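CRYD protein: structure tokens wanted.
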Amino acid sequence: KVDYDVCSNYGNWLYSAGIGNDPRDNRKFNMIKQGLDYDGNGDYVRLWVPELQGIKGADIHAPWALNSVALSQAGVTLGETYPQPVVTAPEWSRHINQKPQGRSPHPRGRREPAHPPMQPKVRGIDFYFSHKKDG
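Answer:
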């Protein structure tokens, strides 16, 4: 299955590049935070970047921040088997070496909500065609 929408993808690339339509000043796309939020265990990165397969967990989102022992154990040599970063944004530093939070399918270290999540109402197809709405 291919998930592709030309307009949405183009808009997201523009937004990520900082040239999209956004009223906020100095907005930047934080790749480290997004990786921790949506790929906390690094499975997606591991699928598409086989050079980093040996890095465990969320550390895969910032391999340049690992010490030489961890890189060696993972079979990664920065500048040889995987490139050095071209640029590192200052705002990434507060997310590097953090445990993933949020919507990760493998939420290692995820905080539990203060209240249990509300269960959605189960509504059949008739709900959408009925004139009487219950909620």
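The helical segments are 6-16, 31-38, 43-48, 68-74, 126-129. DSSP finds five helices and no strands in the chain.

Cheers.
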